[in-house]
Write a structure and sequence with these properties.
Helix content is 44%, strand content 16%. It is an alpha/beta fold. The chain is globular and about 55 Å long.
Length: 304
């Protein structure tokens, strides 16, 4: 059955002049049929370079919005219209404006895991792979980091010269990785290196051998001479880790490393999206233009 769906997807893709982009956190069978697989930064960047007229996005809603913001003339269709990111909604416009009033020099640094409305109110976007580089090079001393507090604190710990204002937002998957569980995993696999996403809490970062974005974790594990790893991020990344490192062993910390929204994306949904060209991502032009500025600034600063 799956092979039939995969063949139909390939056929429809050619008919519709479509390209499939997938995040590392969706199921392996979806990653397998995608044209490009990556983390948030890579997907935002590649979306501006693909020649196809239609982008089918296998991920959560903010990712499709980012692709549309950067590519207004392309059609962007979500593989699942209900797949959303709770963290993207954990800050509001009123809070941003309140902080701007209190700190006139502030730079609002917006994690790409956010809605178009929030991006439109921000100065620059960042991803977990480029946040440190971008914030370090901003002229502003005051930084309001939204919406994820854990990533903000990770960046702040390395930039003591900056003054950070944090937001009470988090990724429920990374926050659910607990210190006690990680310690048990380390005891069970003492030879393993711990590779961790900076959306995890500080006590997890302290026990880690490497901290980086999803793509950086994959690169580190691939280049490392070590053969055993404990992975502190969403388990969808295991597909690519095994693809690139079939001889290495990868362990999770516990059963909670699972994003139900990312797992909504299925092969059947990709096929249906290609057939119907729905659900399509549409944004008002005024908001799209405002939200494009911090995203374009991110791409420019990250490339320097």
């Amino acid at each position: 059955m799956n092979e039939e769906i995969k063949n139909e997807i390939q056929k429809l893709k050619k008919e519709k002049d479509a390209v499939i982009l997938a995040h590392y956190y969706v199921d392996g069978e979806v990653q397998e049929i995608a044209d490009y697989v990556g983390d948030s930064y890579y997907l935002a960047e590649i979306a501006t370079k693909v020649p196809e007229s239609t982008i089918v996005f296998c991920g959560v809603s903010f990712m499709g919005e980012s692709a549309k913001i950067l590519n207004p003339k392309k059609r962007v269709v979500m593989a699942d219209g209900h797949a959303d990111c709770p963290m993207a909604h954990m800050v509001d416009v009123d809070k941003i404006r309140e902080v701007r009033n209190e700190y006139p020099d502030v730079s609002v640094v917006c994690y790409v895991n956010s809605t178009a409305e929030i991006k439109a109110e921000s100065d620059v976007c960042v991803t977990s792979s480029n946040a440190l580089k971008i914030v370090k090079n901003l002229p502003n001393k005051d930084i309001f980091f939204i919406p994820d507090e854990n990533l903000g604190r990770f960046v702040a710990s390395q930039l003591p010269e900056k003054h950070f204002i944090f937001n009470d937002g988090f990724c429920h998957v990374h926050k659910s990785i607990h210190k006690e569980e990680l310690q048990k995993a380390k005891e069970a696999h003492p030879e393993a290196l711990v590779l961790t996403h900076p959306e995890c809490t500080g006590d997890i970062l302290e026990l880690s051998d490497f901290i980086g974005s999803t793509s950086q974790i994959i690169d580190y594990a691939t280049k490392s001479e070590n053969n055993t790893f404990i992975i502190c991020t969403e388990m969808g990344v295991f597909y690519e880790l095994h693809q690139k490192n079939p001889e290495k062993k990868f362990y999770s910390v516990g059963h909670r490393q699972f994003c139900p929204n990312m797992k909504m994306v299925r092969l059947e949904g990709v096929k249906e999206a290609l057939e119907t060209m729905q659900p399509e991502v549409n944004l008002g032009e005024e908001m799209r233009q405002k939200a494009a500025l911090p995203l374009e600034k991110m791409l420019k600063l990250a490339a320097q």
